[in-house]
Amino acid sequence: MINRRNNENSETKSFLNKTASKNTNKAFIQQASSTSPPTRISACNASTTSDEFVNIAKKERSLSLSTLLPRCSIPLLMSIFVNLILCVRLFTLPLVSRINNNAGMLSTDNRKPENDTGILSADDRKPNSFVFGHLHMAKTAGTEINGLLASRFESVCGNKGYSYDAYQFNKREEIRGGNHTVRERTGDLVNQFSRGHNRGKVPMGIMHEIGFEDCDYISLEDSWKQWSEISKTIETNIELHIPCREPINHLMSMCNNKHIKFNCTGNPDEEVGKCFNKLDRFNDALTRDVKLHLKCFNPIPIDPYIQYMGDRLQRKRKENRYIHRDTNRFRNKDKECIWKMPEIKRKVRDILVKNNRFFHFCDVCMGTEKELLLRNTT
Question: How far apart, in whole angstroms, are the C-alpha atoms of residue 345 and residue 236?
Answer without folding.
Answer: 42
